Every structure is written in C-alpha cells, then in structure tokens.
C-alpha cells in the first residue's frame, strides 16, 4: 500500500515552450482584433464554430492524432500547453471541445478504420463537433444505471432511451451514446456499449435544457427507436463501461478543471494592484492555481506515458473544481462588484462565475463521488 | 521523483531510520549513522567535502527524514549551510555545521571578527555556523554562545550570539538575504510535504484498524470523504514541493516563483492536513504518546518559518506580469 498518490512533477520541453509562445501571441492578436471576449467557463458555454475552424487551421485541434487522419502527431503535453493557454484566455472553444478532448482519442483507440476515416479528419479541421450521451433521468452519478437500450435488428441497431445534460447536442454533428446492448439494468457494468450516431437524425429529438444562467448549453436527447447502421457500434459490444472509464482520466484532470473561472481572476488582478487586501488574495489564488496546474500537468504526463491515473485524476478534479468556486467567491467578496449578466468586464465575468458555480463540483462526476474514488484508491473502501 | 536512484536512496535511508525512538532534541546516534553513510551531506559537492549528487537526491532524504520526524539537522546542514559553502567555494568544517537566517557584522581586530545575534536553527548542537555578512560575504565561525529557543515541535530554533568571534573562513560571494529566504522556504516546503505524508499514512492505518460502532472507521463514508480530502491536500503539497525542487535544480527562470508558490501551498496546506489528521485520529492522536503530534507540531512550526503563506502570497501578487504568466512560471 503506497502512502500517497503517485504523481511526478513535469518539466516542459523547449518545443512546449515555443508552442506556448506561439499560442499566446495568436490569442493576443485575436483578442486585440475583437475576435472574442474572454468568458468564464468558455469551454462549456462559448461555442464559436468559426473560431474552432481557425484553431483547426492553426493545427491546434486533434493535434495528437496521427498524420494519416489529418492530425499533427503532437504529444499530449503539447496539447496540454495549447489547451491551457486557450482556457486561461477564456477563448470560445466549446464547439470543438468534446470532439478534441474525448472523442478523437476514443475513436482513434476504439473505432474501426472506417469510423476513423469518417470522423477524425473533420475533428482536426475544427469542423466536426461531438456530444456525449451519458447521463439519464435515473442515471446521474450512478452512470452504470443507464436504461437506454440498443437492440440489434436486420436494419442495424435500434436505440431507445433518453439522455440528459448532453452538452452541445444542438450543434453537434454526432453524438456518442452509452446504451445497454445486453442483459438488464441490474447487470450494471456489463452489457453496455457505445454508439456513434450522426446528427441530426429523424428519430432523435433534441430538446433544450435551460439552466439558471438563463442559457441553453445542455439538452435532453430522446432516442425513439432510432435506427443506426450496424457499424455505428464504437469499440466492442459490451465493452462500453471499460471504454468510458478509460476516457475519465482525460476528462477529469485536464486544465479545464481548474481554469474555468481564470479569466475572472485575471481581470480582477489587473485592477487590484493598489489594494493590499486584494493583492494578498490574488497572491493566494495565484499560488493555488500554480499548484493545481502542476498537478494537472503531472497527471497529463502520466497519461502521456501510457498510464491511466484514474485516482489522481479524481483527486485533481476535486481540488481544481473547488478552486474555481473559490475564485468566484473571493472576487465577489473582496472586489465588491455586483454581477451583471452580459455586462462587459468584471461584472459580466462575475455573473458567469456565480451562475455557473454549482456546475463546477457536479459535472464530470460529483466531488463526493470523486472522493470515494480516491478513498478506494487509498485502499479504505 | 520516483526513478531508481531515488528508490535506492529511500530504501537506504529508510533502513537507517528503522527502530529509532530518541527522546532527545538531537538524535545523535541517527546523525552518526547518516554521517557514516554520507547522507547528511548529499547534494553538496564533493570538492568541498560533501557527498555529491543533486538537489533532488537531497530532497528525497530531507522528505523522508521529515516523514519520520527525525531529529537531525540535515535540512540546516546540507540544504542550507552546504549550499552557502558551495556558493562560496569554502570547505565544510568538521562536526555539525548549520546556517544562520540573519546576517552578522564582520570587523577587523586581530584578524577578522564576527559580531551579531543571528537566528540559527539547531545552533546549540553545531560546532560551526555559516552566516552572511552585511556585504553578502559568506563567513564560517565557531559557535560559542547560544540562546536556546524551540519551535512548537521542540526543535532547536536558537539564537547564536557572536561577540567578536574569530572567523574560521570567509569568501566574497554576495549572497542576498532574499536568496537565503528562498532556500529556506524551499527546504521547509519539502519538509512540510514530508510531514503531511506522515499524517496521511498514519490516518490510513488508524481508520483501517480502529473500530467503533462495530466496524472499522474506514467503513464510514464521512471518514472516507475526510481521508480523500486529506490525500488531495497532501498530494498538492508534495507535487508543489517536487516541482519547486525541480525548477531550482535546473535554475529555471521561474524558480523563484516556484519556491514562493510551493512554500505558500505547503504552509497553507498544513492547516488542512493537521486539522483532518487530528479529526480522523480522534482523542488518541492528541496524546503525546502518539506519533501524530510529532508530524502536526512540525507542520504548525514549519509553515511559519522562512515566510508563511501570507508572506509568499504577497510576493506572488507583486511578481511581474499577468497572473497567468506567473502561474506558468516560465521554467526555461
């Protein structure tokens, strides 16, 4: 039994530094040209297909994919650098986010050659967007309780069920669905499979879920005996759970798990230099962000080395998502600024931050679930 | 830091540490064993009498000693005094040699003499103190008079009183007080992470063994949640200290920021770790007989030494550039 979660600090290569400079320069130019306004939680909420295409043309989407699929053969750590620069700047990356983060690696690993040819080049160009159908009305934190069913028929797979909280399904070109192909819901982790369903689909209805920020980022996606071809199965039949778990390391520890409110911190810090109370708080949050970044980077390095640090990723997400809320509360409390939805500057960033804060510690696995993953990793559960 | 060499160091020092239970403020027998194997001066160049090796090698030893609450001044001798002497190109005097935090004054009367009252951890057990003069010169002198003080963990935090003491060696180097502060902050960050790990290890053992209400504490979800939060903070402390050591060893541009952030993180984490640690141990951990207190009193002491979290938060806030440029620390 190890006495701590094993993580090793990573030191950047020269190539990573040069790439960072390049991205920073690009983002500075884009901001100056008015191409975007920094937003909190931009990876969830700021979808801008034109900006995604622009990033694709720079080679910054699907960057780790092999050249034969249009990718750039970059390392996961180079991707980390690009992504964290985009997030820290609050750039509108939501349109391609899920495709880039999760579906590209998943399709590369689990997909057939035909699926790779079909989806990966578009992802790399920043033109093919994805949604992921995981949660359901009766399966939130308890994902293994999914009821959506896929039945094999002579025409292909027939999918029936309802997915909830599906980010970006209203603009996605395809959705990956976790569905039961075999057994009953009581079988839990066995008998689940993943499918890629092209959107729009005549038997798939996408209904908006409006959240307390008054906006539409999420959807309820209803599959009403939606028929998809036999080759829509992603990976092996019955291997859905294992495939989803393998994605979690990528999903949980990335820089988006501590940088969602970073644009607010940066905007506030730019106007607090004369106030010693505010400065100390900026310093506190800076130190915390520095450490969280080291943790996130260490997990990325572990992933890049071919390991799957599920426990460390859960731990980083727990710390990082709490930090995101800490930033919001600190700025609100110390700055005394009143949040205003849609406003420029601090008031608008603060409004986004406050209204999105419940999501930080819910999405991608609630923090309580994450902590039980950590407890199990420590051998006490 | 998990490559083979470090595993070997860990195993060797771990073997030396086995079965110690000294109640003195200085574990002389442990110190002797460390001296015999050269671990007391790891990371100090062989040319000046050290054992060679890099800063990360030394950090492994310091971390492990902190984990065990070992009562020996390796942080003060190798990490601080050894570093100052290496900077100055002066050889290491025999016996225990430690570094002072404060500067002293050098004057000339029958040769070079040193005067001042300098805070010197472990001063009472040292034969020599390495200190810096107001002009930044590195000076070695014998320790004669000492005012004894202790931190919350009972570790010697003495004031060495230098009254016209004859200088043993001096070298014009120009070490700034801020450099000593950073070096001290770095070693305390490593030690804080080590002590925090001890709290976690003890908590894991305790909740697995201790039964209440008919089952092990580990079976309670509330306990599991606490333990996970503890592990998270301990990991954050450890990775921040590791990253700072890495940055300093490589002389990265962002090394000073890394040290500031690591000391801030480990100092702030001390409260979380000691708090959860004691809560999980219940009343048993509050007894002086339990080893937990050795770790938590060190956490409470070390977080204040060489700048507490507020001090380093202010330093980070004053750093040049955007928050993001500080956070990414320019490690090249």
Compact overview of the structure:
The complex is a heterodimer of chains A (381) and B (332). With 381 residues, chain A is an alpha+beta fold.
What's the layout of helices and strands?
The complex is a heterodimer of chains A (381) and B (332).
Chain A: H1 14-32, H2 42-45, H3 49-57, H4 76-88, H5 94-110, H6 113-124, E1 130-133, E2 149-153, E3 156-163, E4 174-180, E5 192-198, E6 204-210, E7 216-228, E8 233-234, H7 240-253, H8 262-269, H9 276-304, H10 310-335, H11 345-360, H12 367-377
Helix pairs in contact in A: 1-4, 5-6, 5-7, 7-10, 8-10, 8-11, 9-10, 10-11, 10-12
Chain B: H1 4-17, H2 28-37, H3 55-67, H4 74-88, E1 97-108, E2 112-121, E3 128-133, E4 138-142, E5 145-147, E6 157-166, E7 169-171, H5 177-209, E8 211-212, E9 215-216, H6 221-249, H7 255-281, H8 292-302, H9 309-317, H10 323-327
Parallel strand pairs in B: 1-3
Antiparallel strand pairs in B: 1-2, 2-6, 3-4, 4-7, 5-6, 8-9
Helix pairs in contact in B: 1-3, 3-4, 3-5, 4-5, 5-6, 5-7, 5-8, 6-7, 7-8, 7-9
Q: From the 3D coordinates, which CATH architecture of the largest domain in chain A would you assign?
A: Up-down Bundle
Mean pLDDT of chain A: 94
- CATH homologous superfamily placement of the largest domain in chain B: Acyl-CoA dehydrogenase/oxidase, N-terminal domain
Helicity level of chain B: 40-55%
Number of helices of chain A: 12
Radius of gyration of chain A in whole Å, from Cα?
21 Å
CATH class of the largest domain in chain A: Mainly Alpha
CATH topology label of the largest domain in chain A: Butyryl-CoA Dehydrogenase, subunit A, domain 3
Structural class of chain B comes to alpha+beta
Descriptors for this entry?
heterodimer; A: 381 residues; alpha+beta; Butyryl-Coa Dehydrogenase, subunit A, domain 1; Butyryl-CoA Dehydrogenase, subunit A, domain 2; Butyryl-CoA Dehydrogenase, subunit A, domain 3; 3 domains; four-stranded mixed sheet; 8 strands; 14% strand; B: 332 residues; 2 domains; two-stranded antiparallel ribbon; 9 strands; oxidoreductase (chain A); flavin adenine dinucleotide binding (chain A); AcylCoA_DH/oxidase_NM_dom_sf (chain A); Acyl-CoA dehydrogenase (chain A)
């Amino acid at each position: 039994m190890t006495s701590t979660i094993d993580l090793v600090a990573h030191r950047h290569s020269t190539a990573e530094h040069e790439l960072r400079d390049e991205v920073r320069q690009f983002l500075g130019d884009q901001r100056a040209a008015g191409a975007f306004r920094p937003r909190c939680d931009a990876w969830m909420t700021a979808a801008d297909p034109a900006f995604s295409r622009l990033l694709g043309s720079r080679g910054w989407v699907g960057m780790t994919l092999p050249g034969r699929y249009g990718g750039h053969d970059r390392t996961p750590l180079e991707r980390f650098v690009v992504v964290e620069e985009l997030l820290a700047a609050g750039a509108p990356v939501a349109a391609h986010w899920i495709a880039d983060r999760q579906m590209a690696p998943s399709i590369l690993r689990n997909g057939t050659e035909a699926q790779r040819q079909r989806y990966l080049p578009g992802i790399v160009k920043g033109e093919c967007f994805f949604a992921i159908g995981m949660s359901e009305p009766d399966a939130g934190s308890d994902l293994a309780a999914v009821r959506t069913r896929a039945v094999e028929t002579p025409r292909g797979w027939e999918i029936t069920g309802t997915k909830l909280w599906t980010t970006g399904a209203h603009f996605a070109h395809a959705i990956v669905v976790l569905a039961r192909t075999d057994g009953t819901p009581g079988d839990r982790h066995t008998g689940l499979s993943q499918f890629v369903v092209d959107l729009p689909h005549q038997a798939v209805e996408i209904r908006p879920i409006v959240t307390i920020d008054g906006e539409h980022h999420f959807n309820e996606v209803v599959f009403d005996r939606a028929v998809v071809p036999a080759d829509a199965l992603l990976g092996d039949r019955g291997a859905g759970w294992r495939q989803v778990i393998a994605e979690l390391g990528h999903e949980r520890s990335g820089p988006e798990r501590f940088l969602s409110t970073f644009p607010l911190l940066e905007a506030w810090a730019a106007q607090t230099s004369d106030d010693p109370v505010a400065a100390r708080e900026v310093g506190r949050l800076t130190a915390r962000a520095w450490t969280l970044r080291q943790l996130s980077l260490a997990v990325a390095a572990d992933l890049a080395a071919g390991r799957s640090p599920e426990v460390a990723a859960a731990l980083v997400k727990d710390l990082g998502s709490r930090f995101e809320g800490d930033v919001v509360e600190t700025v609100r409390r110390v700055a005394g600024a009143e949040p205003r939805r849609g406003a420029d500057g601090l008031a608008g960033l603060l409004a986004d931050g406050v209204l999105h804060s419940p999501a930080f510690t819910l999405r991608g696995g609630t923090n309580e679930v994450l902590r039980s993953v950590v407890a199990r990793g420590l051998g006490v559960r | 830091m998990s490559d083979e060499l470090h595993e070997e160091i860990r195993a060797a020092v771990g073997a030396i540490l086995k079965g110690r239970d000294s109640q003195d403020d200085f574990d002389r027998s442990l110190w002797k064993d460390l001296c015999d194997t050269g671990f007391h001066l790891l990371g100090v160049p062989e040319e000046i009498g050290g054992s060679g090796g890099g800063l990360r090698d030394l950090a492994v030893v310091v971390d492990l000693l902190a984990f065990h609450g070992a009562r020996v001044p390796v942080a003060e001798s190798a990490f601080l005094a050894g570093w100052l002497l290496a900077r100055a190109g002066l050889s290491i005097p025999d016996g225990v040699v430690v570094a002072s935090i404060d500067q002293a004054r050098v004057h000339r009367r029958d040769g070079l003499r040193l005067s001042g009252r300098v805070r010197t951890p472990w001063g009472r057990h040292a034969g020599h103190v390495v200190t810096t003069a107001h002009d930044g010169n590195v000076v070695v002198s014998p320790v004669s008079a000492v005012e004894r003080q202790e931190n919350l963990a009972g570790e010697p935090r003495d004031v060495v009183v230098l009254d016209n003491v004859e200088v043993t060696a001096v070298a014009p180097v120009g070490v700034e007080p801020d450099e000593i502060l950073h070096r001290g902050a770095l070693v305390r960050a490593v030690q804080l992470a080590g002590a925090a790990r001890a709290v976690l290890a003890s908590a894991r053992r305790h909740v697995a063994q201790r039964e209440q209400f008919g089952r092990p504490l580990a079976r309670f979800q509330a306990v599991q949640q606490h333990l996970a939060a503890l592990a998270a903070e301990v990991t954050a402390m450890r990775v921040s200290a590791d990253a700072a050591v890495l940055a300093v060893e490589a002389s990265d541009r962002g090394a000073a920021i890394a040290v500031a952030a690591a000391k801030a993180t480990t100092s702030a984490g001390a409260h979380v770790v000691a708090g959860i640690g004691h809560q999980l141990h219940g009343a048993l951990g509050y007894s002086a007989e339990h080893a937990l207190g050795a770790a938590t009193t060190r956490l409470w002491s070390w977080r204040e030494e060489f700048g507490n979290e507020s001090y380093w938060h202010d330093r980070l806030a004053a750093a040049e550039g955007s928050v993001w440029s500080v956070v990414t620390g320019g490690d090249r």
